[in-house]
């Protein structure tokens, strides 16, 4: 379990590099760091449990039980906090995404990240393609279209025009 959590934490940190313009708050990596720390702690606790079992130590097994109970309480607390603050996180991420979309010009690093995100997630805009109509890029192009990264991958001749939403 500790090895699996370590892999997940490292994967999140590695993936973060692709989306760091959307997550301007550097504390966004905190959950991944916590996951890695939990993996290390789990390994140590598992080692304590194994050693206590092999030695048949009542004190060691009692310590192991106490640690497991503390971890269970922490997990329940984390679940409750995640449930309570889920809307705040959603609102913050959408606000940050909208600000990055407003900086889109097709050339800057934010534009590259937006294009990458839309292609990888097969989406267009924050909620849908109509989000692009309020961006400076949309108004400056004058051709009533969204970036080509909004186009469905199976559409070869997609121009990103809003009068053909089935292609987006």
Automatic annotation (TrEMBL):
It is a multi-pass membrane protein. The keyword Transmembrane applies. It is found in: Membrane. The chain crosses the membrane at residues 28-54, 61-85. Signal peptide: none annotated. Keywords: Membrane, Transmembrane, Transmembrane helix. Pfam families: Tetraspanin. Coiled coil: none annotated. The keyword Transport does not apply. Its main location: membrane. GO terms for cellular component: plasma membrane. Gene3D superfamilies: Tetraspanin. InterPro entries: Tetraspanin/Peripherin, Tetraspanin_EC2_sf. This is TSN36 protein. The gene is Tspan36.
């Amino acid at each position: 379990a500790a090895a699996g959590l370590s892999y997940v934490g490292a994967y999140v940190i590695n993936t973060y590099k692709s989306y760091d313009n959307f997550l301007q708050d550097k504390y966004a990596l905190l959950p991944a760091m916590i996951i890695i720390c939990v993996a290390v702690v789990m390994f140590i606790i598992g080692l304590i449990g194994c050693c206590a079992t092999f030695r048949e130590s009542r004190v060691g097994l009692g310590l192991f039980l106490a640690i497991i109970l503390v971890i269970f309480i922490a997990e329940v607390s984390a679940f409750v906090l995640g449930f309570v603050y889920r809307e705040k996180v959603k609102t913050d991420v959408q606000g940050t995404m909208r600000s990055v979309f407003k900086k889109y010009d097709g050339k800057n690093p934010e534009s590259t990240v937006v294009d990458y995100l839309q292609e990888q997630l097969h989406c267009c805009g924050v909620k849908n393609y109509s989000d692009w109509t309020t961006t400076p890029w949309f108004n400056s192009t004058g051709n009533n279209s969204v970036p080509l990264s909004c186009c469905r991958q199976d559409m070869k001749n997609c121009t990103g025009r809003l009068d053909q939403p089935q292609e987006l």
